[in-house]
Design brief:
With 510 residues, this protein is α/β, with parallel strands linked by helices. The protein folds into two domains: 350 residues, no CATH class; 87 residues, 2-Layer Sandwich (Transcription Regulator spoIIAA), CATH 3.30.750. 62% of the residues lie in helices and 7% in strands. A four-stranded mixed sheet has the order 3-4-5-6, covered by helices on one side. A two-stranded antiparallel ribbon has the order 1-2. Helix 3 crosses helix 10 and helix 20 packs parallel to helix 21. InterPro entries: SLC26A/SulP_dom, SLC26A/SulP_fam. Pfam families: Sulfate_transp. Its main location: membrane.
Amino acid sequence: MSTDNSAEKKAVPAYGRWKYPWLKQDFAASLVVFLVALPLCVGVAVASGVPAELGLVTGVVGGVVTGLMRGSSLQVSGPAAGLTVLVFEAVDEFGLPALGVIVLATGVLQMAMGALKLGRYFRAISVSVVEGMLAGIGLVLIAGQLYSVIGTEAPDSGIGKLAGLPSALIDAAQNGRTLVSLGLGAGTIAVLVLWRRMPRRLRAVPGPLAAVGLAALVALLPGVDVTTVEVRGLLDSVQPPSLGEFGELGTLALLGTVVAFTLIASAESLFSAAAVDRMHDGPRTEYDKELVAQGTGNAVCGILGALPMTAVIVRSAANVQAGARTKASRVLHGVWLLLFAALLPDVLACIPIPALAGVLVHAGARLIPVRALAALWRENRGEALILVVTAMAIVAVSMFEGVLIGLALSIVKTAWETSHIKLEVVDKGAGPVQAYLSGNATFLRLPKILDSLEALPQDRPVELDLSGLHHLDHACRSALENWRERHSETGTPPVKFTAGVDGDRVASGV
């Protein structure tokens, strides 16, 4: 009897005797994610035109608040480079106090969509539109941050940023101070690009942290004069929106910004969740619950006047690759960010702005799917065109309008492809002309259908077989009936429909 009990004890796995079996792996992963997130949180905040501490606040909320909620167990949330351009435009137009209102309203909308189980429908958005959106963000981000690298002010429009870059870089190369800034930013980008080729032990330090750390050391050298992060203090940076700011929600411009924040943040988070699910074999993402979690985090960020959050693929991938097994890793990473912001805020003052800009230039470049675009062009040029047009529209117009243009193009392309129709004519020289329609007869292809039918001999009887149609809309049904009447006016026998139009299928519009 005792032998059986001892054997049974030996058979009990380690996780059966320990309440937190993966604590060691999650603890180690949380440190890695913290080191990756720290420079990105600060960089996104500075690029968005808000105090650096607000990026850390969003990172803390993304870890501690969203991290504790159900949805995606290994996905990590925080301030994202993908929203930098939109946040900068919002702060520039409405002011920093209004940012909290926008982010809070975004969070409430996301929670409502999750409660209504709309999260799964974001997977129906064309991948080409999402990749085009990210590519457009990447282009504007790169162009804008290159001005920060050389320490000059960027033009307002995306086109202006791109057009003014060559002359700005030439001027920077002729100025001693801006040349130092340019070298520091370029060196940061070089470290990030080459870091994957470093020895494995060295790569234990995340690339963004290594690049920013090296740049900070260079900035401390005598004679190096570069702009560093301005430190305001955590409590001074957190400014909840006043009640008066909520009156702005009645304006159409601010409501449009809220909708843009909601759609882009939700799409980016849920597409990131799908990508993270492919990286591990643990529990799959529950999309509606993840949308509620993201909304809750954004609502808290809005109350604190901080940046909006999304799930971030860079941090999430680092979390999975570092061996995280549960949500404890992302919660702990938020705790480390909070401790850093509370205990070591002065360290931020040592970080050079050109280095943070270099990190974001590298992040922006990773948003542009060059290889995927080349493969897509070979497989489906229509989808590739949607991607390119969406990206260019974001650069030329704005984020919201660019995404709407991409969605409209995607809908038009889908409607055109689903309206494919084929007409086959069999004319044996004697007897009736036999015609066969197959596919989807919609108003989009109505001119083609009528041109083909009207080209049939007017002095011969016609038999039109519609059994191959999957769909026949009202416009096409009316047009076919009118064509039949006109064809019979010449004195030829009436056109005979062998299936469909005279039956129940056409009466129901099918």
